[in-house]
Design goal:
The protein is 53% helix and 0% strand. With 121 residues, it is mainly α.
């Protein structure tokens, strides 16, 4: 028997035996799981763990917000300087809360000059 003939006889048998060993006996799944574990271990040893960035505590956040509000308040303290508080009223109408001595809006000059508005209505 020549070498080529021997190889043609043995190759299918070896191929079948390797396939049976890898698939039916679970050797392939063991190899895959060990490779996966090795990859995870290699990844963890290769990249050093970095400390997590420090998160400000709730008290520090509240204090920072309070400081911001106080600085804004100091900048805008004259914003309501020439205003007057609204009068308190108990009514629910559109003019409730308006003082009785309020002159309102002058409509006499809307269409130019003095007009008799009673004739337009």
């Amino acid at each position: 028997m020549k070498l080529d003939e021997f190889r043609k006889l043995l190759q299918p048998m070896i191929k079948d035996m390797v396939k049976q060993t890898l698939l039916e006996e679970g050797l392939l799944s063991n190899i895959v799981s060990e490779v996966a574990q090795g990859l995870v271990l290699a990844e963890t040893t290769r990249s050093p763990t970095r400390p997590a960035p420090r998160q400000p505590s709730q008290n520090e956040s509240i204090e920072a917000a309070r400081r911001d509000l106080q600085s804004t308040k100091a900048e805008n303290k004259h914003i309501f300087e020439s205003t007057q508080p609204t009068p308190s009223g108990t009514g629910n109408g559109p003019m409730s809360g308006t003082p009785a001595n309020d002159a309102g809006i002058d409509l006499s000059r809307i269409l130019g000059g003095e007009r008799d508005w009673s004739k337009l209505i």
